[in-house]
Design a protein that fits this description.
three-stranded antiparallel beta sheet; 1 helix; single chain; 10 strands; mainly beta; Metal Binding Protein, Guanine Nucleotide Exchange Factor, Chain A; 141 residues
């Protein structure tokens, strides 16, 4: 008899710690989204998402706020600090989680860009053409 498979567990939450979640499934499709809706929802030029089955996702602390961002789309966020946490479509079997909200965001490696028709012109090649900064080098104003 073989040993039971270990369940992959990932966890994450918001910036202030008021809302936490657990993923009991290997991370799925991971992509940089350039759509205008995501840009406006999080205030950033790109959002990186990873997907897991809805049944493998659970809130473990706090109660997130929800915002219907389209006829079928529902986004969750922390009511205290505003961190964007999830996106799901009505009737879908997966939920998308913001990679940056994972405790170990390095575990979710993106393999593609999506909605590139909305990509900001200055974002072309952002992951290979810009210099690396270990920390932000603040420039005097």
């Amino acid at each position: 008899m073989s040993a039971p498979e270990e369940t992959t567990v990932h966890s994450g939450g918001c910036f202030c710690g008021a809302v936490r979640y657990r993923l009991s499934h290997p991370l799925g499709d991971t992509a940089h989204c350039h759509c205008r809706m995501c840009q406006q929802a999080v205030g950033a030029p790109v959002v990186t998402w990873t997907s897991v089955p809805i049944g493998a996702f659970a809130w473990t602390a706090g109660h997130p706020g929800e915002h219907r961002s389209s006829e079928r789309g529902l986004r969750s966020f922390c009511r205290e600090c505003g961190t964007s946490l999830t996106f799901r479509l009505d009737g879908d079997t997966v939920i998308d989680v913001t990679v940056a909200s994972l405790d170990d965001p390095e575990a979710a490696v993106p393999d593609r860009n999506i909605w590139t028709g909305s990509r900001l012109a200055w974002m072309h090649g952002f992951d290979r053409d810009l210099p690396d900064e270990m920390e932000e080098n603040v420039k005097p104003t």
